[in-house]
Design a protein that fits this description.
The chain is α/β, with parallel strands linked by helices and about 350 residues long. It has 16 helices and ten strands. The chain folds into three domains: about 150 residues, Rossmann fold (3-Layer(aba) Sandwich), CATH 3.40.50; about 100 residues, no CATH class; about 90 residues. The protein has a six-stranded parallel sheet, with helices on one face. A two-stranded antiparallel ribbon has the order 4-5. Strands 7-8 form a two-stranded antiparallel sheet. Helix 9 crosses helix 10 and helix 14 packs across helix 16. The chain starts with a strand and ends with a helix.
């Protein structure tokens, strides 16, 4: 069976595995997380120096400039020079939007890791990103350029994949709970069954804003300012981040969060702290707990969790053991006991 798409994790794995020999270019919808691969790969490879190039903004003079001495030589942009001698990780973002002369000048970098006469340090990695041709945002890479690279399609993360990432990146629990209830908000327009989906990017429609992994993170930052700027500003800003339909729905979750028992009371009095009868409120509580719980507070929170509906407890445990806290969480007796009781596999 031939698979036509790779996940973001698989995209990063491929770059890390073959990037010093083959330039991998990932094409995907707007806002799915392609550009975040530079940070991820740099964290995995501290022996390399990360370098970012926004190809859409480049002109030929940004790549190298002539230096006149007794003859003319060309000096490369400092982006391609490693003062320390370490190999580089060079990400060419928006490759398909680069001007044709710039794309042509980058061909030697894509194939040989060379700009003019300057070679990148041994072991350097070059990779690129671009949008799908069907996105209709102007990306085009000619056949002769494609033949120099390994071209892969990067799929949009689904709700579960995005939530796993969100748990480790301080995304607000209101946004997490909303995505859990509206998983189709991260569907792809390439799926014909989603042609009437009002939340997602669709090149066949005129849209000012829409839901993507990137815009959901922005929505999280907006929601966290609510106590400072107020509901009207938050609502307006959410419309600008994720579109009006999603913003109106998400604000309902923001208001539900007001009914939650404060975290401090949950931890101090887990067996008597009020428990909401609202399922959405309990979801928000569970997602917030994954982010906030520590080795010191896990036991009292597990006592409180035992009073919540089993489906909420399962959701919390499943998210916790997929998060960066899994290492110590799976060693906690309260957690392992609850997992056995609710048949959550560690």
């Amino acid at each position: 069976m031939v698979h036509n798409e790779v996940s973001l994790k698989e995209f990063a794995n491929l770059i890390q595995a073959v990037g010093n020999h083959v330039t991998v270019v990932g094409a995907g919808e707007p806002g799915v997380g392609k550009s975040s691969m530079l940070k991820l790969i740099a964290e995995r490879m501290p022996t390399h120096e990360p370098r970012y190039i926004d190809a859409a903004l480049m002109d030929l003079g940004d790549l190298q400039m002539p230096r006149v001495d007794e003859s003319v030589t060309f000096v490369p942009n400092s982006t391609f020079v490693s003062e320390s001698g370490k190999p580089l990780i060079v990400m060419i973002d928006e490759l398909g939007k680069a001007m044709r002369p710039v794309q042509n000048a980058l061909l030697t970098l894509l194939l040989e890791k060379r700009i003019g006469t300057h070679h990148l340090p041994e072991g350097s990695i070059v990779f690129g990103t671009t949008n799908l041709a069907t996105d209709g945002v102007g990306d085009k890479i000619e056949a002769h350029a494609r033949n120099r690279v390994c071209f892969v399609t990067v799929k949009k993360p689904d709700a579960d994949e995005w939530l796993n990432w969100a748990m480790d990146n301080d995304v607000s629990p209101e946004v997490c709970a909303w995505v859990k209830q509206y998983p189709h908000s991260l569907a792809s327009y390439t799926d014909e069954s989603q042609k009437d989906n009002i939340y997602i990017f669709n090149p066949r429609k005129s849209q000012a804003a829409f839901v993507t992994p990137r815009s959901l993170e922005k929505a999280s930052h907006v929601i966290k300012t609510r106590q400072v700027v107020g509901d009207n500003v938050v609502s307006s800003a959410l419309c600008g981040c994720i579109g009006q339909a999603a913003a109106l729905d998400m604000m309902a979750y923001v208001h539900v969060a007001d009914k939650l028992t404060p975290w401090e009371i949950v931890i101090e009095k887990p067996e008597s702290a009020p428990v909401s009868e609202d399922q959405i409120a309990n979801m928000i509580m569970a997602y917030g707990a994954v982010t906030r719980v520590t080795k010191e507070t896990i036991d009292p929170f597990m006592k409180y969790l035992d009073r919540l509906p089993s489906e909420i407890a399962i959701m919390f445990l499943s998210s916790l053991i997929k998060s960066s806290k899994a290492g110590w969480a799976v060693m906690n007796k309260s957690v392992t006991t609850a997992c056995r009781k609710l048949e959550v596999f560690l």
